[in-house]
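User: Structure please.
Assistant: Input sequence and predicted structure:
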Amino acid sequence: MPQHHWISKLFGFDFSVEYRPGKLNTVADALSRREPAPAQVAVMSGPTFAFFDDLRKELQEDATLRQLRDSITEVRGAPWRVQDGLILRSNLVFIPATSSALATVLQLAHTSAHEGIQKTLQCLRADFVIDGDHALVRDHVRACSICQWNKTESLHPAGLLQPLEVPAQVWTDISMDFVEGLPKVHRKSVILTVVDRLSKYAHFIPLGHLYTTASVARAFFSEVVRLHGFNRVHWARLA
């Protein structure tokens, strides 16, 4: 059996797949063969050589920072080291909390996207090490006017879905829903659907609009309770 016939039988549709050359399929061919857009260069802000030169100069001229630089290996041990006048932890550059370069580093990490605390931290930690960086980034983001203007609500992700228990008997657990906006027939434009969750047996009850609690209850009793009894239907879940 050809593959296209097998696919049509599998999904229950009656169709066939035929090859159509691109010269004949002009509509799709025009969309798939558009001229490529001109090349663009994406520029991402980052530290420059001048920045590292200024940081290296500050570590040399400031007495407190120079003492920190000279004792960092003894105080913190591996993987801390000093290389080319900079303090490194592995391959990341350490920025002291009292350094004037701290504000520049935070600005570089944040202004590339303005995507909140976690994204800024991720960008910052790719190149630098800062003591207490989470608190510094949090305060910096909260003080950013652009982030406050475009602030999005941050919520914890939803928990795991909790499936409903399988009913033990038919018509002991039902679901109800309303289908509205239908063409009016005999002054009815709403369908009340009542489905038994175990057997999936359904009742479709026409209602008029506007319907009320009393009219829905009357329809429910006359079409569902009349056939399946009232004592067996314990409760209904509104979809």
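Confidence is low (pLDDT under 50) at residues 1-11, 36-44, 232-239.
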